[in-house]
Amino acid sequence: MKLEGEQTLMRIFIGESDRWKSKPLHEALVEMFRQEGFAGATVVKGIMGFGCHSVTHTDKLLRFSADLPVIVEVVDSPDKIEAIMPRIDDMMEGGMITLEKAHVIRYRKTKE
């Protein structure tokens, strides 16, 4: 797969406790992206954050949170991102999605 030039970076901001059916939402999203042939996806777990309700979620010892922030990042073509958006929207109850242009300068498999 060749993925170079102007692409779209999608970031999906959710909570660690968010679910799709009985599975963690971030896992369900990554599996969907893989099944749909996306170039790749990465899940980043935050150590602190807050959302629209202004409730702080943190991993500090005195205040354990079972709902730390999670960001799922995907880079692919604008058309592919746009086509999958309705499915993502159906899977999410809360959270936020952002899109921005990303200039891909290198994407390839390692030499075997």
UniProtKB/TrEMBL annotation:
Superkingdom in the source lineage: Bacteria
Coiled coil segments of this chain:
none
Q: Which Pfam families match?
A: DUF190 (PF02641)
Q: What SUPFAM superfamilies does UniProt report for this protein, alphabetically?
A: GlnB-like
- PANTHER family xref list: UPF0166 PROTEIN TM_0021
Q: Family per UniProt?
A: Belongs to the UPF0166 family.
Record protein name field: Uncharacterized protein
Organism lineage reads as: Bacteria, Pseudomonadati, Thermodesulfobacteriota, Desulfuromonadia, Desulfuromonadales
